[in-house]
Each structure stands twice: as C-alpha cells, then as structure tokens.
Amino acid sequence: MPIFLENVTVTYDRHPAVHHLSAVIAEGSLVALVGPNGAGKSTLLNALMGLEKVSEGKILGIEREGVAYLPQQALINKEIPISVQELVFSGLWKAVGISRSMTPEHKEYCAQAIDSVGLSGFEKRQISTLSGGQLQRALFARVLVQDCSTILLDEPFNAVDTETTRDLTEVILTWHAQKRTVVIVSHDLPYVREICPTSLLLARECIAYGATHWVLSNENLKKARRMVEAVDQQAPICKRVKAA
Ligand SMILES: Nc1ncnc2c1ncn2[C@@H]1O[C@H](COP(=O)(O)OP(=O)(O)OP(=O)(O)O)[C@@H](O)[C@H]1O
C-alpha cells in the first residue's frame, strides 16, 4: 500500500518543522528525502515512525510494526554494553516476544544478516569497540532481520567511507528489488542522483517531489535554501489550513 501524507504538519512548541506536506509515496519506491539543514527531514521520518505527533493532517498507509528505522548515527548510544550479535538480535524482539531468548535458528538468521553486511567474525564484539562504518554495517544487519516492508534511513552514510557506502548501497538496492519502500535522508546529492529514482525536496514545505533529476534542479535547490533561511523561529503560529 502507498503511504499517503495528507496536509501533514508537525510542530515543536506549536512552530511547524514540517508544514502542510502532501505526497504519496508509492509502494516499493526508493525515495530520497533532501533539503537544507533544518528543513524538517528527520522530523518527517520521526512522524512516519509515529515518534512525533502529527499536529494537523494525516499519515495513512503505514503501520509502525511494518517499519524499520535507522536513526542518525549521532543518536546511537555506543556505550550500551551489547555485542554485535545482540544488537542485530534486538531487531527480532518484536517477533520473538517477551522471552527475548535466542534460539539456534535466531542465531543462524542473525549470522546470515551479519555476513551479508560484511561483518562476519564480529558477532561477539562489543559495539563500543566498533568503528563508525562497522557500527553502521551492524545497524543495517539489524534492519535486515526486521524484514519490514518500509525502511527509513536517516543519513546512513554520514561519516562512512566509500567501501562501506558501496557495500551498504548494495543492501539498499536489494531491498528496492524486493519491492520494499525505502526512504533515505541524504545531503549527498551526487549519491541521490545516482541511486534514488525519486526525491522529495523539503524546506519545511514540499518544494518539489518526483523524478530526482527534475526535483534536484538548481532552481529548486536555491528555492529550498531561501525558504529555510527565511524561517523566523519567533514567527506567530501558522493559521494556514491547507497548502496552496
Ligand atoms: N525536539 C525538538 N524540539 C524543538 N525543535 C526541534 C526539535 N527537533 C527539531 N527541531 C527543529 O525543527 C526544525 C527541523 O529539524 P529537523 O531535525 O527535522 O531538520 P533536518 O532537515 O533533519 O535537519 P538536518 O539536515 O540538520 O539534520 C529545526 O528548526 C529544528 O531546530
């Protein structure tokens, strides 16, 4: 089922971070969510996850149980004392239930995911000892075992080297080939142009949504920058009812 964003507004302290956004994300699409700093990209992902409340409008066609979410790496607490295997297994908690005990089948399933992100041999390593790229591989393995129809990735290749980006991009393209819906927040426009057929350019409001080569025109990018720069954090609360 597609994801329907109908006039979605998400506010912090009643000031909108995402503003009257309407879009349909087709099932099985690979969509980049792009825009300047402060454009509302992470806020929108959080709203899709149900972690931020939509203050106006609706998000339809998405169920939290069917969504895997990879937050920005800066938000991951590496000091939690768990191994790579335990981190990946935590992706199965919902399916396993309250016992959270790892059967040999779970172990094998996690091992396969760890292997497919190139981390074989790291199963027992504490995540605190991993490099940024290795941690990102482990987090992708966690998403793999979740086996969700919708996958939301917030800046997955920030501070990650070329080889890791290339390997994990293969994982993303496999998800896309499997007709899962993948949304990637990225500032890397050459990467987006190469990998993502569709983009949504956000500057709190939707500046453009559609084929990436059209969305990422100089004109649209300039407009997005201007819109975000012009935001007045102290502006009165928006009273607009619907996007123009
Ligand atoms: N928890 C919060 N409380 C108050 N304001 C917030 C909160 N989170 C984000 N904001 C504000 O909402 C706006 C959008 O932030 P958001 O993080 O969604 O943007 P972004 O496009 O993901 O930015 P970046 O590219 O820098 O990660 C910003 O003005 C930000 O300061």
TrEMBL record:
Q: Which Gene3D superfamilies match?
A: P-loop containing nucleotide triphosphate hydrolases
**One example GO MF annotation:** ATP hydrolysis activity
Describe the location of the ABC transporter domain by residue ranges: 3-229
Species name: Teredinibacter turnerae (strain ATCC 39867 / T7901)
InterPro entries noted in UniProt: AAA+_ATPase, ABC_transporter-like_ATP-bd, ABC_transporter-like_CS, Metal_Ion_Import_ABC, P-loop_NTPase
This chain belongs to the protein called ABC transporter, ATP-binding protein
Please state which protein family the record places this protein in: Belongs to the ABC transporter superfamily.
Matching Pfam families, A to Z? ABC_tran (PF00005)
Transmembrane ranges? Answer: none
Q: Which UniProt keywords apply?
A: ATP-binding, Nucleotide-binding, Transport
